Structure formats: structure tokens, C-alpha cells
Amino acid sequence: VQKKGGSINDAWTLDDYFNGDLELVQMQRGAGANNVGMVAWLMVLKTVEYPNGRQIVLIANDITFKAGSFGTREDVVFKLASEYAREKRAPRLYVAANSGARIGTAEKVKKAFKVAFKDPSKPENGFKFLYVTKDDYVRLVQSSKEILTEPVQFENPITGKMEEVYKITDVIGSEPDLGVENLKGSGLIAGETSSAYEDIFTMTIVLGRTVGIGAYLVRLGQRTIQKKTSSPIILTGYQALNKLMGCEVYSTNDQLGGPGIMYNNGVTHLVAPDHLSCITEALQWLSYVPSIRGGLLPIVDLRGVDEIERSVNYSPQPGVSYDPRHLLAGAHDGKGVWQAGFFDKNSFKETLGGWAKTVIVGRARLGGIPMGVVVTENRTVEAIKPADPADVKASEAVIQEPGGVWFPNSAYKTAQAINDFRTEDLPLM
Q1: Which parts of 102-201 are beta strand (E)?
Q2: What is the annotated signal peptide range for this record (predicted)?
Q3: Helix (H), strand (E) at residue 59
Q4: Which of 296, 366, 404, 413 could disulfide-link to 356, CB 3.0 to 4.6 Å?
Q5: Which residues contact 310 (CB under 8 A, 6 or more apart)?
Q6: Which residues, 6 or more positions from 72, have their beta carbon under 8 angstroms from its beta carbon?
Q7: How far apart are CA 303 and CA 69, in angstroms?
Q8: What are the backbone angles phi and psi of residue 134, rounded to the nearest 5°?
Q9: Among 269, 189, 170, 177, CA closest to 226
């Protein structure tokens, strides 16, 4: 991102974006050369469905830059890259690994303030206030209004003499991205993600912790692939909640937003064990989706895998419960003979499998044509409600849900799946 007519090294702010003075520029550079904690790529993927290549826009946090936090500059890069994807009607993938909206520190004040301890020989007893000397006051207040202060008399711990110092009452700071302006940028990209979901294919791959606005972006983008370990989706950390409750209730962030929570409540669509598996799942998902919104469906050649003109051999036995997935994907019978299902062999991929199990949703191919699938579960399933660690009287509850019934969660799952298929331009079966 740079100013229009300027160079990549020119400084810019969120106000420049609102004034319409910024533009997104493509460039070639080495890894780690970015000066903003958000990076975007225009990628060309040469896949089986598109051997000549298909374009996607990939946006990612740089967790090595200020812990991956969202400042206003990061928000602008995200916003412009997402708008670019919408203009091209190309899929937009977001790789999430962040620490939420940035809480900055005023570095000039940080280097200047001093602590008035109650007992200088015993700092562990606490302090009375923070202050700056007269020289620092002149530099911080009269020149740039970094702080608000009030003069007080204080005994210098070194000389033992009383002198006038300036007690800090408020820290304002002059550097950008210190406080609530970051939340303004967060609102900007939340609205952009919501619009992008309606206009193009959006997906989030959670490869590390994603906090606050990062968690909101996950949900607003809907389709989510989460790494199994060290990738919680949370609004705040477990330490803050423990402090709020006054006792050690939670021990890890996974108790708040790990796959055991998010996959079972319908936020996470797929769970994968490692980084490579997450990317593999994302590419498989993309294989069902047109290269641009409203484009032709990616039809694949079935030769060597299945046949278009064939019988559906799988047939449930009367009075015997069966897995409805076998109707879709086929299965081996008791003798090891393959019984073909409705869709092409090995083409069915279930999503949201951990949530609302009386309905099964996913994607498959029929004669090479990708389709969205919704089928009811005919067997009784178990819905597990985990115990809340914050409630000492709570225990894990196992609820029996009969098949063929739309419960509130399975009805919502059906509606969400159909809406996802709509924005993927998939026929619905």
C-alpha cells in the first residue's frame, strides 16, 4: 500500500485511506521485507481443475511483526486487498495468526517516566504514582502534549530533598496506533469481511491463535479450517478471565476456543492436524469452487476413477440402520465389494461434521460436476455439551437426538450450508 503518485517508502495513515489517497500496488520483494504486520498476495494456482491457473487473493497476519496485532495500517492493507479480491471476483483466503487489536505504548513516555515508590528500599510494597522530572515535562508536554500532569512535591530518594515533579494523570502519546483508533480500523475490516462473504468465496485458515477482531473475522468469513493444536479462536485470553473471576478457572486458551469447542459449535468447518494438512484441505475445498464468482463450475474428467453411466449399487437393508454418507459416497459391503453411491467415487467431503449431527452437509461431484449436499441422519446421535469450567456444579451433558428431526442447531446448520453453497455457485442436492 502506498500513497497515490508516491513511493512505497512514503509514510501513510488511516486518514489517508479515508481521504482516498491510498492504492494497492503489486511488487516483488523478499520474505520479511514488509513494514506492516499484514501481507497480501495475488496467487496463481495451477490445479487439476484449472491446469492453466486460477487466481486467488491470500491475506495473512505476520505474527513476527508486533505479535501479529491489528493496527490501523494492518487494517488498511486487509481492507484494500479484500476490496481487490471483490473487484476481481476471485476467492479470498485469510490465514489467521494474531493477537487482536493493538494496544500501543507511548515510547517517549515509557523512556522518561519514573516511579514514586512508597518505600524505595522495598519496591514490592507498591508505589504512590508515576511522574516525570521538570526537564522531561517540558519536552513531553510543552512540545507535543504526550501526557497530562499535575505538579506535586516529592522527596528525591537520592538527594533526600523535596523537589517539584509532575505526576502523570493521563498518557496521550503522539505515535499512531496507540488506542481506540485501532478499533476504528477493526470495524472497517469487519464490515469488509461481511460484504466479501456475500460477494465472493471467503475462507479462513486458522494456523495460530486468533484474538478479538481476528476471531470476528473468522466468524464473518464463515468457512473456517482450524489447526488442531495451538490455534484457539478467542475474544480474550484465559488469564484475563481468571483475573476477572478471581480464581484459576481456565488453564489454556483451548478451553475457550480450541477445536474441541469451535468444531463442536459450528464455527469451525474442518479440523486438520498440522499446517500442511490445513492448506491441503483448503485446496480441496477450492476444487469445488469456480475460479471467479459467477464463473463456470470446475468439471473434472472421471476416467480412471468412476463412470458417468453407472448404477447406484448401495442399498440399505430394510429395518437395519445405516450411515447416510454411504448413500452419497458408496461403501464396501461385507465381502469387500465396492457398492457405488449416488456421487462420484471419493468425491464427497463433509463439513461441519462435529456440530448438529442430525443433518449432514458437504460437497461432492456428480458426473464430475461439483454440488452442495444436504442429507438427513436417520440414526439417533449424541450431542455433547461440555462442562463449563467456570461453574463448579456443571458437568458434561450427553443429549440423545433422534434422526430425521430438525433441531434448532441442525436447522441453522442446514440454512448456513445452503447459504455457503449459494456464494460458491454450487447446485444443491
Answers
A1: 114-117, 127-132, 147-155, 162-171
A2: none
A3: strand 54-61
A4: 413
A5: 340
A6: 13, 14, 176, 177, 181, 182, 184, 185
A7: 48
A8: -65, -40
A9: 269
Q: Could you tell me the CA-to-CA distances from 354 to 260, 345, 382, 409 in Å, in that order?
A: 9, 23, 11, 12
Dist CA 321 CA 323 (whole Å):
7
Residue 298: which pLDDT band, with cuts at 50, 70 and 90? very high
- Residue 351 corresponds to which amino acid? T
Return the C-alpha torsion angle 266, 267, 272, 277, nearest 10.
Answer: 120
Q: In angstroms, rounded to a whole number, what is the distance separating the alpha carbons of residues 216 and 202? A: 14
pLDDT in tens, 118-146: 888 888 989 999 999 888 888 888 767 88
Q: Could you give the domains of the chain?
A: 2-103+179-286 (3.90.226.10), 107-171 (2.40.460.10), 324-423 (no CATH)
Alpha carbons 291 and 391: distance in angstroms, whole number: 48
Beta bridge partners of residue 41, listed in sequence order: 58
Query: CA triplet 408, 412, 416: central angle to 5 degrees?
Result: 175
Q: What pLDDT digit, counting tens, does each position of 56-107 carry?
A: 999 999 999 999 999 999 999 999 999 999 999 999 999 999 999 998 888 8
